[in-house]
Amino acid sequence: MMTPFGWGGIEAGVSTDSAQAGSGMKIRDGGHHTEAGDGSCLAFEVIGGPKNLQMLVESGEVTTVEAYLDPKAPIFMTDRGVKLGDPEAAVRKAYKELKQLPDIYSEPPDKKLFHYEPGGERGIKFSINGGKVTGISVGTRSIEYVEGCL
């Protein structure tokens, strides 16, 4: 179950050590550094966990937890019942207040839909491709960063 705060004890806004302790899972730098290139924003993986799950980490703090649609991997779901593979209409039904941005890697009608909790500090991003939810990202305002980094 993914919430604006994280998944499985991995919370956005805590250190990688705290995320590891809170989840009971081992996490590590997956060797993927974003285009920021300075090493300040990294993609971490859950060892032995779902292969379609990763965390984005800035300066040692988890900022985003992301899951992507993969037919050979688990289907992640939000606390309001929207899951990977659902149609865009399911997102719009479950989340009334949505911010929409274009998907810079594909053409319309692909898009990113954002739901923010009151106060706007935590939220959920839905990647919509081909009319379906292909990604769910949860966490801090970093869910709006391209490639997870500024």
Describe it:
This protein has one domain (2-148). The chain has two helices and eleven strands, in the order βββαββββαββββ. The protein has helices spanning 16-23, 88-94, and strands at 2-3, 6-7, 10-11, 27-33, 41-46, 53-58, 61-68, 99-102, 111-116, 122-129, 132-140. The strands form two sheets. Strands 4-5-6-7-11-10-9-8 form an eight-stranded antiparallel β-sheet. Strands 1-2-3 form a three-stranded antiparallel β-sheet. The protein is globular, with a radius of gyration of 14 Å. The protein starts with a strand and ends in a 10-residue tail after the last strand. Mean pLDDT is 88; it is low at 34-39.
| Overall helicity | 10-25%
What proportion of the residues form beta strands (DSSP E)? 35-45%
Mean pLDDT: 88
The tally of strands reads 11
Biggest sheet features: 8 strands, antiparallel
Task: Explain briefly what this protein structure is.
With 150 residues, the chain is mainly β.
Task: Name its key features.
150 residues; globular
Topology:
Layout: E1 2-3, E2 6-7, E3 10-11, H1 16-23, E4 27-33, E5 41-46, E6 53-58, E7 61-68, H2 88-94, E8 99-102, E9 111-116, E10 122-129, E11 132-140
Antiparallel strand pairs: 1-2, 2-3, 4-5, 5-6, 6-7, 7-11, 8-9, 9-10, 10-11
